[in-house]
Amino acid sequence: MKLTMKGDYGLRAMLDMAAYYGQGPIESADIATRQHIPEQYLDQILMVLRKEGLVKSVRGPKGGHMLAKSPSQITMAQVMQALEGYVPPMECLPNPDFCKLSPGCALRDVWQQIDALTQQILTSTTIEELAQKHRTGSTEETMYYI
C-alpha cells in the first residue's frame, strides 16, 4: 500500500477533528493551520470525506467541519478507502493476468499475506485509538500535529 499526500492529509484532518469531537464544527482554516495542510487541498479532501459520510459540514458564521460519527466508529480503512480506494502492494494482486508469472508465484503469495495483514491493521485501527496515542506524551503546543 502506498500512502499519498491525500491519504496522509485526510488522516491528519480526521485526527484533528477527533481532538475536538463533541465541541462543534471546526473551520477548515484552523485544521489546515494546525496540520500544515494547504487549505484549498484540505477543502477538496473534506468534500470527499463528507460524501463518504465520515465528515459533516455546517455552513454559516459558526460553521465548519466535524466528524459525522464518534471517532471510535471510524477506522483508518474507511478513511483510506474513501480517499485512496484499494491500493494493492503489487499490481498482480487484483489482476493476476498483469504478470505471466502469477500462477504459482511464491512472491505473489507473500504480497497477498502482506496485503491481508495491512488491511487487517487498517480495519482494526480507529481514529479514536490514533487520537489517544497521539495525545499521550505530547505537549499542549504540539498535541495534534502528526
UniProtKB/TrEMBL annotation:
NCBIfam families: rrf2_super. InterPro entries: Tscrpt_reg_Rrf2 (IPR000944), WH-like_DNA-bd_sf (IPR036388), WH_DNA-bd_sf (IPR036390). GO terms for molecular function: DNA binding; DNA-binding transcription factor activity. PANTHER family: HTH-TYPE TRANSCRIPTIONAL REGULATOR ISCR, WINGED HELIX-TURN-HELIX TRANSCRIPTIONAL REGULATOR, RRF2 FAMILY. Pfam families: Rrf2 (PF02082). One of its GO terms (cellular component) is cytosol. Keywords: DNA-binding. This is AsnC family transcriptional regulator.
